[in-house]
Amino acid sequence: MSESKKWIEKLSLEAHPEGGFYKETYRSWETGQFSGFEGTRNISTAIYFMLTKDNFSAFHKIKSDEMWHFYHGSAIVIYVIDLEGRLQKLLLGTDIEKGQRPQHLVKAGCWFASRIEEEGDYALTGCTVAPGFDFRDFVMAERNQLVADYPAYKDLIKSLTR
What predicted TM-score, i.e. pTM, was given to this entire model? Predict the structure, then answer.
Protein backbone atom coordinates (compact mmCIF):
# COMPACT_ATOMS: atom_id res chain seq x y z
CA MET A 1 0.00 0.00 0.00
CA SER A 2 1.37 3.43 -0.93
CA GLU A 3 2.07 6.05 1.73
CA SER A 4 -0.74 8.24 0.42
CA LYS A 5 -3.26 5.40 0.61
CA LYS A 6 -2.17 4.70 4.20
CA TRP A 7 -2.81 8.33 5.18
CA ILE A 8 -6.16 8.33 3.35
CA GLU A 9 -7.23 5.16 5.16
CA LYS A 10 -5.91 6.03 8.64
CA LEU A 11 -7.32 9.57 8.61
CA SER A 12 -10.62 8.51 6.94
CA LEU A 13 -10.15 11.02 4.13
CA GLU A 14 -12.83 11.34 1.45
CA ALA A 15 -12.74 12.72 -2.09
CA HIS A 16 -13.23 16.51 -2.19
CA PRO A 17 -15.24 18.18 -5.01
CA GLU A 18 -12.28 20.44 -5.89
CA GLY A 19 -9.90 17.45 -6.08
CA GLY A 20 -7.77 15.74 -3.48
CA PHE A 21 -9.03 14.25 -0.23
CA TYR A 22 -10.25 15.77 3.04
CA LYS A 23 -11.67 15.16 6.48
CA GLU A 24 -13.19 17.81 8.70
CA THR A 25 -11.40 17.75 12.06
CA TYR A 26 -12.89 20.77 13.80
CA ARG A 27 -16.03 22.87 13.68
CA SER A 28 -16.40 25.47 16.43
CA TRP A 29 -19.51 25.04 18.51
CA GLU A 30 -19.95 28.79 18.60
CA THR A 31 -21.63 30.50 15.64
CA GLY A 32 -22.24 34.06 14.61
CA GLN A 33 -23.53 36.43 11.98
CA PHE A 34 -20.84 37.79 9.70
CA SER A 35 -20.95 40.61 7.18
CA GLY A 36 -21.39 39.29 3.64
CA PHE A 37 -22.78 35.92 4.74
CA GLU A 38 -26.39 34.78 4.71
CA GLY A 39 -27.37 33.09 7.96
CA THR A 40 -25.02 32.03 10.69
CA ARG A 41 -21.59 30.47 10.33
CA ASN A 42 -19.35 28.64 12.73
CA ILE A 43 -16.54 30.86 13.89
CA SER A 44 -13.89 28.47 12.54
CA THR A 45 -13.44 25.08 10.90
CA ALA A 46 -10.43 22.90 10.10
CA ILE A 47 -9.73 19.98 7.78
CA TYR A 48 -6.99 17.61 6.78
CA PHE A 49 -6.39 18.01 3.04
CA MET A 50 -4.31 15.69 0.88
CA LEU A 51 -3.18 16.02 -2.70
CA THR A 52 -1.63 13.15 -4.61
CA LYS A 53 0.79 13.42 -7.53
CA ASP A 54 -1.93 12.40 -9.99
CA ASN A 55 -4.49 14.93 -8.75
CA PHE A 56 -4.85 18.67 -8.13
CA SER A 57 -7.11 21.09 -6.32
CA ALA A 58 -9.04 22.95 -9.04
CA PHE A 59 -9.52 26.71 -9.05
CA HIS A 60 -12.24 27.73 -6.64
CA LYS A 61 -12.97 30.48 -4.13
CA ILE A 62 -14.67 30.82 -0.77
CA LYS A 63 -16.01 33.79 1.20
CA SER A 64 -13.66 33.22 4.16
CA ASP A 65 -9.94 33.47 4.81
CA GLU A 66 -8.24 30.07 4.56
CA MET A 67 -4.96 29.34 6.35
CA TRP A 68 -3.01 26.41 4.90
CA HIS A 69 -0.70 24.31 7.10
CA PHE A 70 1.92 21.84 5.84
CA TYR A 71 2.17 18.49 7.64
CA HIS A 72 3.93 15.79 5.61
CA GLY A 73 5.08 14.67 2.17
CA SER A 74 5.91 16.79 -0.86
CA ALA A 75 5.68 20.54 -0.99
CA ILE A 76 2.79 21.99 -2.97
CA VAL A 77 2.23 25.16 -4.92
CA ILE A 78 -0.88 27.20 -4.18
CA TYR A 79 -1.77 29.49 -7.08
CA VAL A 80 -3.81 32.52 -6.02
CA ILE A 81 -5.43 35.11 -8.25
CA ASP A 82 -5.90 37.96 -5.80
CA LEU A 83 -8.70 40.49 -5.74
CA GLU A 84 -6.67 42.85 -7.96
CA GLY A 85 -6.17 40.09 -10.55
CA ARG A 86 -2.50 39.43 -9.76
CA LEU A 87 -1.18 35.87 -9.72
CA GLN A 88 0.68 34.72 -6.62
CA LYS A 89 2.57 31.44 -6.34
CA LEU A 90 2.74 30.31 -2.71
CA LEU A 91 5.11 27.44 -1.85
CA LEU A 92 3.77 25.33 1.02
CA GLY A 93 6.38 23.08 2.63
CA THR A 94 9.29 23.10 5.03
CA ASP A 95 12.33 23.80 2.83
CA ILE A 96 12.73 27.48 3.66
CA GLU A 97 15.90 27.64 1.51
CA LYS A 98 13.65 27.01 -1.53
CA GLY A 99 11.20 29.70 -0.43
CA GLN A 100 8.69 27.28 1.08
CA ARG A 101 6.75 28.17 4.21
CA PRO A 102 4.78 25.84 6.52
CA GLN A 103 1.78 28.21 6.50
CA HIS A 104 0.15 30.40 3.89
CA LEU A 105 -3.00 32.50 3.94
CA VAL A 106 -5.44 32.67 1.03
CA LYS A 107 -7.62 35.72 1.57
CA ALA A 108 -11.38 35.56 1.23
CA GLY A 109 -12.75 35.89 -2.30
CA CYS A 110 -9.53 35.00 -4.14
CA TRP A 111 -9.47 32.27 -6.78
CA PHE A 112 -6.99 29.54 -5.85
CA ALA A 113 -5.80 26.08 -6.88
CA SER A 114 -2.94 23.82 -5.84
CA ARG A 115 -0.82 20.87 -6.95
CA ILE A 116 2.38 18.99 -6.25
CA GLU A 117 5.12 20.22 -8.58
CA GLU A 118 8.13 18.30 -7.37
CA GLU A 119 8.93 14.63 -6.89
CA GLY A 120 6.76 12.82 -4.42
CA ASP A 121 3.61 10.79 -4.00
CA TYR A 122 1.48 13.11 -1.87
CA ALA A 123 1.20 16.21 0.29
CA LEU A 124 -0.69 16.16 3.58
CA THR A 125 -1.81 19.61 4.63
CA GLY A 126 -4.48 21.21 6.75
CA CYS A 127 -6.76 24.17 6.19
CA THR A 128 -8.31 26.40 8.84
CA VAL A 129 -11.18 28.61 7.68
CA ALA A 130 -12.66 31.63 9.46
CA PRO A 131 -15.56 32.29 9.44
CA GLY A 132 -16.06 28.55 9.23
CA PHE A 133 -16.37 26.75 5.92
CA ASP A 134 -19.81 26.14 4.48
CA PHE A 135 -20.45 24.73 1.00
CA ARG A 136 -22.91 27.63 0.46
CA ASP A 137 -19.80 29.86 0.26
CA PHE A 138 -17.86 27.61 -2.15
CA VAL A 139 -17.64 28.45 -5.88
CA MET A 140 -15.88 26.13 -8.33
CA ALA A 141 -14.38 28.03 -11.27
CA GLU A 142 -15.88 27.60 -14.70
CA ARG A 143 -12.88 27.29 -17.02
CA ASN A 144 -14.04 29.47 -19.93
CA GLN A 145 -15.26 32.26 -17.66
CA LEU A 146 -12.06 32.28 -15.59
CA VAL A 147 -9.95 32.40 -18.79
CA ALA A 148 -12.12 35.27 -20.09
CA ASP A 149 -11.62 37.15 -16.79
CA TYR A 150 -7.85 36.44 -16.59
CA PRO A 151 -6.54 35.72 -20.13
CA ALA A 152 -2.90 36.23 -19.07
CA TYR A 153 -3.18 33.03 -16.98
CA LYS A 154 -4.95 30.97 -19.66
CA ASP A 155 -2.53 28.00 -19.66
CA LEU A 156 -2.44 27.76 -15.87
CA ILE A 157 -6.23 28.02 -15.60
CA LYS A 158 -6.70 25.32 -18.24
CA SER A 159 -4.33 23.00 -16.36
CA LEU A 160 -6.05 23.57 -12.99
CA THR A 161 -9.75 23.45 -13.86
CA ARG A 162 -11.99 20.50 -14.71
Answer: 0.96
